[in-house]
Design goal:
By secondary structure, the chain is mainly alpha-helical. It contains two helices and no strands. Helix content is 76%, strand content 0%. The two termini are 17 Å apart.
Length: 71
């Protein structure tokens, strides 16, 4: 969808999602005996993702889509 709209940051956006999946998968493969520290790491990781990506990068995409739709 981003490419169809010629969104200038499409590649970086897709790469950010790929890194998110890779980091999340790596955390989930962690030694199960590290349960408590994993919860803290996962919570911190998801908080940062929501704050930085969704409220930042996705907001820029939203603005671009809205401007494109109004043309």
């Amino acid at each position: 969808y981003m490419r169809q709209l010629d969104y200038p940051h499409a590649e970086a956006h897709v790469e950010a999602h790929d890194r998110f999946r890779e980091e999340l998968e790596a955390m989930l493969e962690t030694d199960p005996t590290m349960h408590e520290s994993l919860q803290v790491s996962l919570s911190d990781f998801l908080y940062k993702w929501l704050k930085l990506h969704v409220l930042g990068i996705d907001k820029k995409l939203e603005d671009f889509v809205l401007k494109s739709s109004s043309k």
